[in-house]
Write a structure and sequence with these properties.
With 118 residues, the protein is an all-beta fold. The chain is built from no helices and 11 strands. Strands 2, 4, 5, 6, 9, 10 and 11 form a 7-stranded mixed sheet that branches. It has a 4-stranded antiparallel sheet with strand order 1-3-8-7, with no helix packed on it. Strand 9 and strand 10 form a beta hairpin. It starts with a strand and ends with a strand.
Length: 118
């Protein structure tokens, strides 16, 4: 199975932008859906952006209009553009792959820290 490696996290001021990248060790062409999740201590991991192999995207209300997910099957990458960042966006962000239409056999990256603070 593919392995996922995230990059692009860091410290940014409120209102700023960051772009996260997820690079897969193999082809993501046939992977049903790719997504970004985030997690803070003591809380459940939550999905913040998802894109299927048809290009359909989904965002929760908390990030809609600020985050944009994109997928490049030729480069085996998934990116998350985050704009108008807020302190509550601070979390470890994880790249996720869902191989088929059923939510099972999920693949996770190691995570990248995003800190929004002045």
């Amino acid at each position: 199975q593919v392995q996922l490696v995230e990059s692009g996290g860091g410290l940014v001021q409120p209102g700023g932008s960051l772009r996260l990248s997820c690079t897969a060790s193999g082809s993501i062409f046939s992977i049903f859906a790719m997504a970004w999740y985030r997690q803070t201590p003591g809380k459940q991991r939550e999905m913040v952006a998802r894109i299927t192999n048809d290009g359909d995207t989904h965002y929760p209300n908390s990030v809609k209009g600020r985050f944009t997910i994109s997928r490049d099957n030729a480069k085996n990458t998934v990116e998350l553009q985050m704009n108008s960042l807020k302190p509550e966006d601070t979390a470890v962000y994880y790249c996720n792959a869902q191989p088929g239409p059923v939510v099972k056999n999920l693949i996770w990256g190691q995570g990248t820290q995003v800190t929004v603070s002045s």
